[in-house]
Amino acid sequence: MISLTVNGKKYQVDAAPDSKLLWVLREQLGLTGTKFGCGEGMCGACTVLVDGKARRSCVTPVSAVKGKKVVTIEGLPESHPLKLAWIAEQVPQCGYCQPGQIMQAAALLNEHPKPTESEIDSAMSGCLCRCGTYQRVKIAINRAAGKGKKP
Ligand code: FES
Ligand code: FES
């Protein structure tokens, strides 16, 4: 058994230490907001926070997050500035990549509450969107950071 803290709740999961966090979240904890894209750490669809930093859960063994705080898209309150900004700017198209985009943006704002344009570009460059929502993602991050439009 492995003890995990996800979205502020403690869980005991029966998983091999090298099981990937993504599948433990989705299949054992039913937290299906975190998406499977490439499975190789390249697209960002599976991004979650681990102790406030962005991690690709598809390549993170569950044993690596023992004793750490994991937050998934379900763990951000509906009133979170990023969620409000995403709605206000109508960011998603198909929506598939968006949980990962939001969690990557949350990690960025943890580190840089008022990010510059280049900090946004560099933080978000690994989150791919086949629908091409990049421009609106960026506008929404600025909005959530209180730059430009209000959240
Ligand atoms: S599914 Fe994890 S980075 Fe693509
Ligand atoms: S909104 Fe469709 S993949 Fe990003």
Notable characteristics:
single chain; binds FE2/S2 (inorganic) cluster; 151 residues; alpha+beta; five-stranded mixed β-sheet
Describe it for me?
The protein is α+β, with helices and mostly antiparallel strands. 32% of the residues lie in helices and 14% in strands. It is built from five helices and five strands. Strand 3 (47-50) and strand 4 (53-56) form a beta hairpin. The chain is globular and about 45 Å long. It starts with a strand and ends in a 7-residue tail after the last helix. One FE2/S2 (inorganic) cluster binds at residues 92-98, 129-131, 133. Residues 36-39, 41-46, 56, 58 line the site of one FE2/S2 (inorganic) cluster (FES).
Describe the SSE topology:
Blueprint: E1 2-6, E2 9-13, H1 21-28, E3 47-50, E4 53-56, E5 69-71, H2 81-88, H3 98-111, H4 117-124, H5 134-144
Parallel strand pairs: 1-5
Antiparallel strand pairs: 1-2, 3-4, 3-5
Helix pairs in contact: 2-5, 3-4
This protein binds FE2/S2 (inorganic) cluster (2 copies).
InterPro entries: 2Fe-2S-bd, 2Fe-2S-bd_dom_sf, 2Fe-2S_ferredoxin-like_sf, 2Fe-2S_ferredoxin-type, 2Fe2S_fd_BS, Beta-grasp_dom_sf, Diverse_Oxidoreductases
GO molecular function: 2 iron, 2 sulfur cluster binding; metal ion binding; oxidoreductase activity
Domain 2Fe-2S ferredoxin-type: 1-76
